[in-house]
Amino acid sequence: MLLIPGPVEVPKSVREASTLVINHRSEGFREIVTGLEKLMNKHFSSTRVALLTGSGTLAVESMIYSLTKPGEKVISFPYGEFGRRLVDSLKRRGTNVKVYEKPVGNTFSLEEIKQAIDENKDATTVAIVHNETSGGVAFRNLEDVVNVVKRKGLKILVDSVSGFAAYKILVNEWKIDAIATGSQKALASVPGMAFVALSKDGISELVTENLPSYLDISLHLKFQDKGETPFTPAVGVFNASLRAAELLEIEGIENRWRRHEACVRFVREVLSSYGFSLFGNESNFSNTVVAGVPPIPDFRKKLKEFNIEISGGMGELKEKIIRIGLLGVVDDRAVNKLLQATAKILGKEYDYRPPEECKLPEPLREEVEWS
Ligand code: PLP
């Protein structure tokens, strides 16, 4: 049972779809590209979604390279490992980054963001991590953050690699310029695809000069207009992501946001009743990752004896916390197994029941075997 923050368990039909190998310049593949962009636009409520072969890092870096220029002033607010990686990518691009950093576990208030923008009148862009996977915390108020930035007239670029589909995100309505995600997280597809969703403003800001071709989002979108990709794509991974996007459509994106929130809240409640100390403040707890310190040593190793795999900490939290990934198609059955095993390890009773909202609807439920 894979309960790490990605890759995640995938539904049977997604796994099967991933084995497809066909000509990428064929009508069959054109249908996949067109169908996938259409569904991803719907799920993001965006105008275009670039579909790239690669990992979440490619999504973030193509977003940065295609929406900033060397020398441009960018403000960033890291609060963990992925926030620092975002800053690193911005520096590699040659932007002039003003960094406001906080220790992992925190986020920034709207007031702090406003003030930072006021202190940097020459800045054009704000770049943030939506859901900081390394600490199980998030900007839960993404809409308000976007609002503050846009009202000040700056662009906003968002790394939501581990957030998309687990929180409400409305790219066009909120006017997010660009937001990046990957296939192996809450979309519940196989690893290997990077997505960058854009609003109309975001599209008009795309740059093309002096870009490595694979990071040039305009080039990808131009080919997608014909149902193609500029270079040989991971055909099977595209097909798997199309199936995952269809299953997301069947569940309903709002239900998926709710399911993530309900499952994760329940797991936190039970774990804290067992003596876990949860990482971060309650106001910014993540919908996809539970981070904390178990009441006994070697908890992760003991869980492995139940065939359940979770993650450890990253960066400065290595060996200090555990992280449980509850994203994708995690449901009441998965949560029960995790918590029953935890209770056994700790010598406790498990007499809790996950909420209804934590259940997967059919046909997704029968497509996932949590054994
Ligand atoms: N950003 C965030 C917030 C992530 O959680 C991850 C991966 O977990 C990445 C970026 C990088 O994604 P990948 O490992 O797929 O390149």
Structure annotation, total helices: 14
Mean pLDDT: 97
* Element string (H = helix, E = strand): HHEHEHEHEEEHEHEEHHHHEEHEEHH
- What is the 3D shape? globular
Largest sheet: 7 strands, mixed
Structural class: alpha/beta
* Cα separation of the termini: 7 Å
CATH topology of the largest domain: Aspartate Aminotransferase, domain 2
The assigned CATH architecture of the largest domain is 3-Layer(aba) Sandwich
Output the CATH homologous superfamily of the largest domain: Type I PLP-dependent aspartate aminotransferase-like (Major domain)
Radius of gyration: 20 Å
- How much of the sequence lies in strands comes to 5-15%
* Helicity range: 25-40%
* Strand numbers in spatial order across the main sheet: 1-9-8-7-4-2-3
Query: Residue ranges: pLDDT <50 for 5 or more in a row?
Result: none
CATH class term of the largest domain:
Alpha Beta
Distinct small molecules bound, one entry per kind: pyridoxal-5'-phosphate
Number of domains: 2
- List how many beta strands DSSP finds: 13
Description:
Keywords: Aminotransferase, Pyridoxal phosphate, Transferase. Residues 51-313 form the Aminotransferase class V domain. This is Alanine--glyoxylate aminotransferase family protein. With 371 residues, the protein is of the alpha/beta class. The protein folds into 2 domains: 13-251, 3-Layer(aba) Sandwich (Aspartate Aminotransferase, domain 2), CATH 3.40.640; 253-367, Aspartate Aminotransferase, domain 1 (Alpha-Beta Complex), CATH 3.90.1150.10. It is built from 14 helices and 13 strands. Strands 1-9-8-7-4-2-3 form a 7-stranded mixed beta sheet, sandwiched between helices. It has a 4-stranded antiparallel beta sheet with strand order 10-11-13-12, with helices on one face. A two-stranded antiparallel sheet has the order 5-6. The structure holds pyridoxal-5'-phosphate. The site of pyridoxal-5'-phosphate has 14 residues, from helix 3.
